[in-house]
Amino acid sequence: MLYRTAGQFKTSYKADQALFPVRQDAVLLGVILILAWVVFPLMASEFTFQTLLIPILIYSLAALGLNLLTGYAGQLSLGTAAFMGVGAYACYKMITLMPWMNPLVAILLSGVFSAGVGVAFGIPSLRIKGFYLAIATLAAQFFLVWLFEKWGWLYNYNASGAIQVPNLEMFGVYVAGPQASSTVQYYVVLGIVTLLTIVCINLTRGTLGRTWKATRDMDIAAELIGINLMRSKLTAFAVSSYMVGVAGALFVFMWRGAAEPNLFDIPLSFRILFIAIIGGLGSIMGNYLGAILIVGLPVVLNTLPAAFGLPISPATVEHLNVMIVGALILFFLIIEPHGLARLWALIREKLIIWPFPH
Amino acid sequence: MLKDIFVTPFVDMATAPDFLMQVLWEGLVSGILYALIALGFVLIFRSSRIFNFAQGIMVVFAALTLVGLHAMGVPAWICVILTLGVMFVLAVTVERVVLRPLVGQPDIILFMATIGITLFLIGFGEIIFGGENKVMITEELGIPTDSVVFEPFGGLLILEQKDITAVVVAALLVVALLAFLNKTRMGRAIRALGDDHQAALSVGISLQQIWVLVWFIAGIIALVTGIAWGARAGVSFALEVIAYKALPVLMLGGLESITGAIIGGLLIGMLEKLFEIYWGQPLLGGNTETWFAFVLALIVLLFRPQGLFGERIIERV
């Protein structure tokens, strides 16, 4: 009833190819956007901002970047965290070298550096395929993290070897650093994530996205119908690394406030890969669903024992969390290997014909 | 600068051959362990096309079970047998719960599933055995802990007996495994399954049984690796990092090749030690072992995309 599409006629090609051919989809998205832009910020506490809202958005953006590469262009990457690191360190260097720079511009530019590094490590993809390609991104992962640690110039030779976010002002409001308020940071993150998501949706619907999908489905066939594989794969690496790099800059500047090289170690890469896969490879919305699950789950699990009054030590809770996350990953892979986005698509199909089964 | 890269290291090697041999020996021992883990990967990959990321954690889990059981007062050798039992239960569980429902899914989904298994085992192991570093029961298992000292070229070369034991046991394990794969009925079934799933199924080979068997063998290899590595570095979840090292070994050797896994392991073990000692520490600030293997594998793959011994990739539209 709610999702009835009957009666929504398309009378032109333009209407048929619109972003939301079904009106209810647009309404649903509108509701979500109002929630994100108006309702959540009004209701959320400091704790909710810092443990749920901001990280979910940042992880979604990183997963979105990875999904463009792995889900749309079919190139497996295990080095996402390192590319996030490139973005974060690039942003840090720009801010400290040019303190007059607008933080927003710095964050958006930092992705460019990570895109460059991404293309460099993407070059092997022209020759190496499948799991063998994972080695190229793993090499990036381990080499770059080592570089963050050894190359003193990157962290301005400070003694701790970590980067510390300074107080950054934009139009008279602190947006990053210890003095910035969570609400402001949330809006900055939300603005950037919304913007980049719109870019991604349109990229994947256009020529570039179709080229990527053709490359993913069978690269030799794609080459035969005239797709330039080198362009297709390298643009995928570039765009994906750009998104991931911006996510990395946001990760440090809008959320963590400081970063050590080992923050960008391989567990973070896997975490983002989980989000992309649990959410659904080759979908945009899936990244958000996956991030909500993977970021939200530990928070919920942490509060459960206290809520039920169970006497469990924090260390045990930590280990239980790891175990439960592992089990849930298996569970979701088994019930729907194509991810939460597919699950939603199935539910939507059912809703459209409900209450009649056929 | 160029002199530091191209001349000095070789001069150092030539003037202190005993030190060079010591470095090579250390590299060889860690190479053997990389090779063992890679072997577990290769077995599972060949028979089921699953890129088993959990092999590294199986090593830790086997070693932890062994040490944990011994801490409960069980005699050392019974511990080994019990641990093998645990690995068998693990193999059956993994096959029943995870692999069976996921048959025929894309490679990356199965890969993810093994990462899920990894996380589950990490959490499970830490709850049961605790996360702190433990000492491997080396002496109780009858492994000698002395060291042998040679004096080649008037220098000094120290070989730990437990390392020698590890090398010998690993070599025996590989020989036994090759014999099993080539001479026995079940071994041939495993290889048949690796060559062509459908053809193997059509002549009556049971996919489920073989998968349990393969995961169990991977478990045995994991136990041996766990004992050998634990004797060197203690048993803790830090062992997990060697699982990452097995990846370049696999890529270098080729995903399907047992020979490749062994040769790749030895090569990477020795070259990364050499690079670290003669180039990494003087020129790059050390700790290059974290990435050297990956970069080496990447360079080799650029010239041979299927690895040194992998099956040639033939693509058709």
UniProtKB/TrEMBL annotation, chain A:
Matching InterPro entries: ABC_transp_permease, LivM-like
Pfam family, any one: BPD_transp_2
Molecular functions per Gene Ontology: branched-chain amino acid transmembrane transporter activity
Domain of life: Bacteria
Membrane topology: Multi-pass membrane protein
TM stretches of this protein: 26-43, 49-69, 76-95, 101-123, 130-148, 184-203, 234-255, 261-281, 288-308, 320-341
Principal localisation: membrane
Keyword vocabulary terms for this entry: Cell membrane, Membrane, Transmembrane, Transmembrane helix
Keyword set includes Secreted: no
Annotated localization: Cell membrane
GO CC field: plasma membrane
Protein name listed in UniProt: Branched-chain amino acid ABC transporter permease
Organism: Salipiger pallidus
UniProtKB/TrEMBL annotation, chain B:
Location within or outside the cell: Cell membrane
Main location as per UniProt: membrane
Domain of life per record: Bacteria
Keyword Thylakoid included in the entry's annotation: no
Transmembrane segments annotated in the record for this chain: 20-43, 50-69, 75-99, 108-129, 164-181, 210-229, 249-271, 283-303
Coiled-coil intervals, chain numbering: none
Keyword check for Nucleus: no
Record-linked Pfam families: BPD_transp_2 (PF02653)
Membrane topology recorded in Swiss-Prot or TrEMBL: Multi-pass membrane protein
GO cellular component, as recorded: plasma membrane
InterPro entries: ABC_transp_permease, BCAA_transport_permease
CDD domains tied to this protein: TM_PBP1_LivH_like
GO molecular function: transmembrane transporter activity
GO biological process: amino acid transport
Keywords (A to Z) from UniProt: Amino-acid transport, Cell membrane, Membrane, Transmembrane, Transmembrane helix, Transport
Annotated family: Belongs to the binding-protein-dependent transport system permease family. LivHM subfamily.
This protein's name: Branched-chain amino acid ABC transporter permease
